[in-house]
Amino acid sequence: MRSWYVAWIAGLGLAAVAQAEETIKIGVVLPYSGVYASLGGDITDGMQLAFDLYGSEIAGRKIVLITEDSEVKPNVGLTKTKKLVFQDKVDLLVGPVASNVAGAMRDFVHNAKIPLIIPNAGNNLLTGEKCSPWVIRTSFSNDQINRVMGPWLYEQGHRTLYLMAADYSAGHQMMEAVRRGFTEAGGEIVGEEYPPLRETKDFAPYLAKVKAIRPDALYVFFAGGLAIQFVKQYQDFGLKGEIPLTGAGWLTSPLFLPAQGTAATGFIGALNYVPTIDSEENRAFQAAFSEKHQRTASEFTVQGFDTGRLIVEALKLTSGKTADKAALVEAIHRVHFTSPRGPFRIDPATNNVIQDIYIFEMRQTGYDIRHVVIDKIADVQDPPNGCKM
Ligand code: BEZ
After folding, report:
1. Residue 123 to residue 352: CA distance in whole angstroms
2. Ligand 1 pocket, 124 CB below 6 A?
3. Average pLDDT in the 276-293 region?
4. What does DSSP assign to residue 272?
5. Which residue, judged by its Cα, is nearest atom 2 of ligand 1?
6. Interval between CA 36 and ligand 1 midpoint (Å)
């Protein structure tokens, strides 16, 4: 049984929890089914660990999670969000994983003036043109992770790049970010493909085009089951060792690595966290997580963990009070800490996280396949991108 089973019970409205009027209710909208189900599970596990370590009761009020499955569908995510606000009367919201679901939730949350803490979805607009005082992101923006890679790949000597990503807002925003940096540096995009997010089972037609064009490198964004399938087929197609594979670092997440095995080696990615970060905070975090779950914590776990910690620290600053939402957001802005990923703080100008970005290569040492950090860009902060609070 997963540790957040209790929250599912709360979601069903059982009397024991419903009667606890003094609880702090956090409405969680994450995928527990569909293409990103495992990501939602890791984020929830990370949040629970933070409540275990930093406190699950503030000023006598117990924190209760009410979880809802977004199914990675925008309309479902919005309906579940409304249910959490109107029916469950939650004090704040956490979610979602996917950029398209976040896009669907944004206007409702903004108008309802309920703080939403995004623990994954990178949709640029939500901390850019369509930012809101009530939408805070602890994970990344799609631009923040990918824009560093354009100039970096050019500096490594690549002059032509082929882009491939899941066909929805996140995939397109990420490819735009790398295109901008790479072409400004002098490189050329020689092809691009956007396989469907839900229906893609076979990458062969897309890989055949890459093989024919022979770019200096292939840059991709895939996560969940797509990442596992893509990495295996890239090897099966004979492209591994022929055309360097680079991209957004979720491709070889610790969540997908056991299924990918040695096919993952050689990939070069950019991400806000890798499990091999050499710091006391990261070692303590990985030890605590593996003691509880007997597996490696992923970047999704860390985003959940930092979300939980941010909530606890902010609630301590408000003495557990949640009625004044503006005061709660103001408290969130005052919280700074050292996360397993490095220094963590929320930029009050955009409500997006300011953080280090790691460039890593997947390498095999003995039986181990590891994320080896080869570069780090410190304190990456998004420009306002049209955000006016
Ligand atoms: C997104 O849709 O924003 C997203 C999903 C999975 C990994 C990274 C980003």
Report:
1. 11
2. no
3. 98
4. S
5. 98
6. 9
Cβ contact 191:209 at 8 Å:
yes
How confident is the model at residue 21, as a pLDDT?
Answer: 53
Q: Which amino acid is at 275?
A: P
Q: Which domains does the chain have, with CATH numbers?
A: 2-140+279-354 (3.40.50.2300), 144-271 (3.40.50.2300)
Query: Does the beta carbon of 207 sit less than 6 angstroms from any atom of ligand 1?
Result: no
- Ligand 1 midpoint to CA 60 (Å): 36
**Per-residue pLDDT tens digits for 344-372:** 999 999 999 999 999 999 999 899 999 99
pLDDT band at 166 (very low <50, low <70, confident <90, very high): very high
The pairing of strands 353-365 and 188-193 is unpaired
Both structure tokens of 382: 């998004």
Beta strands in 13-114 (DSSP E): 24-30, 57-58, 61-69, 92-94
Q: Say if ligand 1 is within 6 A of residue 122 CB.
A: yes
DSSP string, 203-263: -HHHHHHHHHH--SEEEEE--THHHHHHHHHHHHTT-TTTS-EEEEGGGG-TTTHHHHGGG
Average pLDDT over residues 171-193: 98
72 lines ligand 1 (CB under 6 A): no
Whole-angstrom Cα distance, residue 104 to residue 107? 7
Q: Where does the pLDDT of residue 198 fall: very low under 50, low under 70, confident under 90, or very high at 90 and above?
A: confident
Mutate to test the pocket of ligand 1, among 250, 251, 256, 298 (most ligand atoms within 8 A of CB): 250
Mean of pLDDT values over 11-28? 64
Q: Which helix (H) or strand (E) holds 144?
A: helix 142-146
Q: 98 in ligand 1 pocket by Cβ < 6 Å?
A: yes
Q: Which of 29, 125, 135, 142 to mutate to test the pocket of ligand 1 (most atoms within 8 A of CB)?
A: 142
How far apart are the CA of 166 and the centre of ligand 1, in A? 10
Q: What is the pLDDT of residues 125-154, one digit of tens each?
A: 999 999 999 999 999 999 999 999 999 999
Q: Identify the residue whose C-alpha is closest to ligand 1 atom 5.
A: 98
